[in-house]
Amino acid sequence: MKDVAAAAGVSLKTVSRVVNGESNVNDDLRSAVLESIAQLGFRRNASARELRQGRSGTIGLLLEDVADPFYSILSRAVEDVAREHGTMVFAGSSAEDADRERDLALAFCERRVDGLIIVPAGSSHSYLLPEMQAGIPVVFVDRPPGDIEADVILTDNRGGSRRGVEHLLAHGHRRIGFIGDAPEIYTAGERLRGYREALESAGIAFADELVTQAPPSAASTAEALDRLLGGPSPATALLCGNSRTTVSVLRELARRSTRLALVGFDDVELGDLLQPGLTVVAQDPGAMGAAAARLLFQRIAGGSPGPTAAPPQTVTIGTRLIPRGSGELAAP
Amino acid sequence: MKDVAAAAGVSLKTVSRVVNGESNVNDDLRSAVLESIAQLGFRRNASARELRQGRSGTIGLLLEDVADPFYSILSRAVEDVAREHGTMVFAGSSAEDADRERDLALAFCERRVDGLIIVPAGSSHSYLLPEMQAGIPVVFVDRPPGDIEADVILTDNRGGSRRGVEHLLAHGHRRIGFIGDAPEIYTAGERLRGYREALESAGIAFADELVTQAPPSAASTAEALDRLLGGPSPATALLCGNSRTTVSVLRELARRSTRLALVGFDDVELGDLLQPGLTVVAQDPGAMGAAAARLLFQRIAGGSPGPTAAPPQTVTIGTRLIPRGSGELAAP
DNA sequence: CTGAAAGCGCTTACAG
DNA sequence: CTGAAAGCGCTTACAG
């Protein structure tokens, strides 16, 4: 900027004014400055600017895995909202590892992000308290944080799951299985709860042998199906607690050429092209990302935290049941 | 850092040494400093550090759309390599818009990224020349840049396409259609070329009515299929030039209950669960992202550009033909 | 409308 | 092993 000023024969401050699009600059000086900028290939140094301003114009986005379709759609929605606010996005994958989540979050804070959106992997987030008190707003998505109070955007997991089971009940099923992710995972727990509630409301006793909770894998899915279909009173329908499990179940059913009424939690691409089409309880990752980003920028604009700030919000986003065939197979 | 120094009763420079993990610090002083850091909730300001060091420890990643599975997998691979180098990733979606690409790329440069990975949307990249001369290495992925010489990582589009057609030829087909993306798109052009080459090698005349080049949409796909299947000598097989087209074609074929031997360029999730399974020429977005990131960090380590630097490299990554049924339907 | 001075929070280069 | 001074490239606060 000093060089540009020298080349244009003006002061550094005038260059600053031009670069920042301030209006109160003489037209001749402005064009002289612009010319020098073009000639020297000048590009303002954001680090210096951030250092002085204290605001970085960036936010951090911490996901489980950027490559997972659910999170990549969420990610794009965050980016689009950030763009409206002239803000860039740092993205990182925690790979469901609490330490990695912490490292990334603190690295973002060291870069003085204006705010943080986190899909929590760990179960304790007190490490963020100093940062939040220092004025970095944090919004959690998909799962609530542990140990601290903060804004969080959730899917209506319990309601969605309940609705999926009710759909199967409406088609005459009474033996309905559930295969979900590991019980430590918040969403897995909520979805199981919805399953139980729906059964209870229908006056059907909960049966242990119809429920599996484990990280999705081909082996665990095969085992779960053995148990579901093997006994004296096999399941005639199944709610899959997440899309990885759904895919795993579909593969295993195809291998066995077994048919089973099926509802998947979370949509999968090409679900409509399967035979039969896959009925799902669809989440809306785009809406979740947008809601998280909107809330975050609201907090950023709100200024300092503390007792004056609005209390933490929990936003629950609804699901949509999409019938495509697999969930409408009638009970034998 | 000044506050930490005061609290610990040492100089600012000693704090700096501790924070940076330098070894030559007395153990007592070190622990005093660490205690003050914990107590004050100190976190080093990366902007100040970057300003002084000139290196930001970030790279920019510019994709067409973070939400697209191909790019989100590529993105994760880039992140993993960046992680090995202690580097964070700024990600942005150009949405296939040249202006947006330019804006994002220059915003990244203003943030003094150490390097840039770009899936080009625009056809001219001379705007990057000043940045590259200023020492920011740029690696292009998936498509080559326009107007400038630079490193680029490509899929073997032509070879893959050729192989897909040869596969269909081997199953007895002679009337093979091609539906690809708009001809301006580099990959679309290369894949069409591969299609032509394969036909030529087999001594089959190129037929205009069997080829469609348009952005994938339900309407354009329906039209294309009308043309392919309508004439006196309809196509018996089809190569789809990209995954969006493939999905669109599958939907349209399902609607018409028409079967057609089909090979898709680029894999799609659940392709194995369709009836018949979807045969594809698979790309390897993870390998592309990793290769791009590796090359970029090599350039970053290499230092200043100019005549001493190694000349631009083009790396071509092979495809894999995955037969799953749809491509093995024999010609009538 | 224009500019000179101070300072953001670090690291670099140097002295002891 | 420890520290005092200068400076990275901007913006802020102020004076004219």
From TrEMBL, chains A, B:
CDD domains: HTH_LacI, PBP1_LacI_sugar_binding-like. Residues 1-53 form the HTH lacI-type domain. It holds the Pfam family Peripla_BP_3. Keywords: DNA-binding, Transcription, Transcription regulation. SMART domains: HTH_LACI (SM00354). Transmembrane segments: none annotated. One of its GO terms (molecular function) is transcription cis-regulatory region binding. SUPFAM superfamilies: lambda repressor-like DNA-binding domains (SSF47413), Periplasmic binding protein-like I (SSF53822). This is LacI family transcriptional regulator.
